[in-house]
Amino acid sequence: MAPRLPDGRTPLSLKAGGLPVRTAMVMAAGLGKRMRPLTATRPKPLVEVAGQPLIDHVLDRLRSAGIGRVVVNVHYLADSIEAHLARKASDLEVIVSDERAQLLETGGGLVKALPLIEDDRFLVVNSDNYWVDGPIDAIRLLSQRWDDATMDALLLMVPLARANCHRGIGDFHMAADGRIRRRKAGRVAPFVYTGVQMVSRRLLDGAPEGSYSTNILWDRALAAGRAFGIVHQGLWFDVGDPAAIRQTEALLLNAA
C-alpha cells in the first residue's frame, strides 16, 4: 500500500511514480538587508506579498506537494518566525534549526540542520521565494526529474527573460541533458536559480562547519558533473526589495 501523510494524502512525488519527498528545508535565517526598512521590525519571511507573508506562500506550495515535514532555520527575529509557524503551520511537522547564536548562511545552515532532516533526498527552499506553478508544479517537476544515480543537486531554474523583478544577468548555462555550469565573469547566462532545489545528502558529505554559502557545496557537485537544472513551467518573482513587492503584485494582478 502506498504510504500516506497523517491527513490521508499521498505524497505528491509518489503519485508521480517516484520515491516520496518527505521533508523540506526552508531557509528563513537571513537578515533581509535589501528589504529594509520593512525588515527593521520583522524578518523578511514575514514580509507580505499579495496579502500573505512570503513564508506562507512557500508553506502552501509544500502542502500542495504533500510534504508534511518542514525544517526551518532561524536567526534574525527568530521568536517572530517561531510564533508565526506555531499559528500558521500547526498542520505540519515543523522542526526549528536554531541559529540564534551564529548566522550560518545557506551552506552552513544546511549542514547544521542535516541531523534534523534524516532523509537521503530532500527539498531546499528559500523562504523569500514567490512562484506560481505552471501546468506541472515545480515540486512535482523536480521529483519527476530526479535521478539518484547521477545527481547530487537539482536546481529549479527560470529563463532570464522570465525572471520577473530580477536585476541580475543570469546564473547558469544548461546542457541538453540538464547538467549546469556557471556563468563566466562579465558574461550573461540564460538561466536564473529560483531558490528551490532538490538535493541528496551526498551534497553535504565532508562539508565544513561554520558560515558559508551553498555555492561552496555546489562547486563540488559541478566539478563532478552531478549538478543539474530543470526549467520552471510557471511564474517566478525575485522579491528582494520593497520596490519588487509592488512590481510583483502588479504583475500578478495583470496575470490573473
TrEMBL record:
Pfam families on file: NTP_transferase
Checking InterPro entries in the record gives: GlmU-like, NTP_transferase_dom, Nucleotide-diphossugar_trans
Sorted alphabetically, which keywords does the UniProt record give? Nucleotidyltransferase, Transferase
Q: Which SUPFAM superfamilies match?
A: Nucleotide-diphospho-sugar transferases
Residue intervals of the Nucleotidyl transferase domain: 24-145
Q: What is this protein called?
A: Nucleotidyltransferase family protein
Organism whose genome encodes this protein: Sphingomonas arantia
Starting at the broadest rank, the lineage of the source organism is: Bacteria, Pseudomonadati, Pseudomonadota, Alphaproteobacteria, Sphingomonadales
